[in-house]
UniProtKB/TrEMBL annotation:
<dbReference type="GO" id="GO:0005694">
    <property type="term" value="C:chromosome"/>
</dbReference>
<dbReference type="InterPro" id="IPR027417">
    <property type="entry name" value="P-loop_NTPase"/>
</dbReference>
<dbReference type="InterPro" id="IPR003960">
    <property type="entry name" value="ATPase_AAA_CS"/>
</dbReference>
<keyword id="KW-0067">ATP-binding</keyword>
<dbReference type="GO" id="GO:0016887">
    <property type="term" value="F:ATP hydrolysis activity"/>
</dbReference>
<dbReference type="InterPro" id="IPR003959">
    <property type="entry name" value="ATPase_AAA_core"/>
</dbReference>
<comment type="similarity">
    <text>Belongs to the AAA ATPase family.</text>
</comment>
<dbReference type="GO" id="GO:0005524">
    <property type="term" value="F:ATP binding"/>
</dbReference>
<protein>
    <submittedName>
        <fullName>ATPase family associated with various cellular activities (AAA)</fullName>
    </submittedName>
</protein>
<dbReference type="InterPro" id="IPR044539">
    <property type="entry name" value="Pch2-like"/>
</dbReference>
<feature type="domain" description="AAA+ ATPase">
    <location>
        <begin position="56"/>
        <end position="208"/>
    </location>
</feature>
<dbReference type="Pfam" id="PF00004">
    <property type="entry name" value="AAA"/>
</dbReference>
<dbReference type="InterPro" id="IPR003593">
    <property type="entry name" value="AAA+_ATPase"/>
</dbReference>
<keyword id="KW-0547">Nucleotide-binding</keyword>
């Protein structure tokens, strides 16, 4: 399928193959409820809310370090929201690649962004009653104009960001049933006016030890579905707490990989993961922690 410029994926939700991320990602209590509530309000009542003096922009921004689950959470949210409003019709899920828009040609970035908001997204939104758009690393699209580098073309950067802001306003007026999800690893790089339009800016920090313990328990429970003899490890809360303490400072992705690394600790374990022990897990986490503290000399 030929995708429009800047669009990396188009999906129809809800769909079975999109199940999983919403349940598997572990975040502080209340996070998912707040996200889903915001999404359903926009998708279900966006048109009616336009009559308010301060209507929503249908924009949610997730910020935080890499590995904290921002993209996975957005993908899961799209499926969960689509299921919540499915009685009114299907949802179009659009993934936008912001890195497809910068151009060395003066004014081309601005024109490409304008096409995205004025033509591409409205055309896709017209297909179904609800639309969710995901823009990962939005700082590449809505560059903070006050910090635009003069090593690039600052005039074009300003114009492209201006096009994002005007496009966002026009898109909201034309497509009140559209929800735009944006992620950023670097909030300081996102234009202030873009952030001010967000209905919700949610920061996902590195997990604390309680969340790390839940991530470890979840990872072991998933392994136990493949190798049932590992259920004892999956149910050992004292072990989870110990490993979480060793993982302090890890993001969720690194924590899950450390658990998996324990299974790959030696050929014998890789051949038969049912031989995995608590000592293997501790050794793998300690190795991962030691590796993360090593600095490479210049």
């Amino acid at each position: 399928m030929n995708l429009p410029h800047g669009v990396s994926g188009i999906h129809v939700l809800p769909a079975d193959h999109h199940d999983g991320p919403w349940e598997s990602i572990i975040v502080p209590p209340g996070t998912k409820e707040r996200l889903l509530g915001t999404a359903v309000l926009v998708l279900r009542h966006g048109r009616a809310l336009q009559s308010l003096s301060g209507p929503p922009h249908g924009l949610v921004v997730l910020a935080g370090p890499p590995g904290t689950g921002k993209t996975t959470l957005c993908q899961g949210l799209a499926q969960a929201a689509a299921m919540a409003v499915a009685n009114r019709g299907a949802t179009t899920f659009v993934e936008v690649d912001p890195h497809a828009f910068p151009s060395e040609m003066l004014g081309e970035s601005q024109r490409a962004v304008r096409r995205l908001f004025a033509e591409t997204l409205p055309e896709l939104a017209a297909r179904r009653p609800h639309t969710v758009v995901l823009v990962d690393e939005v700082e590449a699209l809505a560059v903070r104009r006050s910090a635009a580098s003069f090593e690039t073309n600052p005039v074009d950067v300003h114009r492209a960001t201006d096009a994002v802001l005007s496009g966002l306003d026009a898109l909201r007026a034309a497509c009140p049933h559209l929800l735009l999800l944006a992620t950023t690893n670097f909030t300081e790089g996102v234009d202030e006016a873009f952030l001010s339009r967000a209905d919700l800016v949610l920061r996902l920090d590195l997990p604390d030890v309680d969340v790390l313990a839940r991530i470890i328990r979840s990872s072991l429970a998933e392994l136990a579905t493949l190798w049932p003899t590992l259920r004892g490890l999956a149910q050992d809360e004292a072990l989870h707490a110990k490993l979480a303490g060793l993982c302090e400072g890890f993001d969720g992705r690194r924590t899950r990989k450390a658990v998996l690394a324990a299974v790959a600790g030696c050929p014998e374990l890789a051949e038969n993961p049912e031989r995995l022990t608590a000592d293997d897990l501790s050794a793998a986490v300690e190795a991962a922690q030691a590796l993360s503290s090593v600095t490479t000399p210049l």
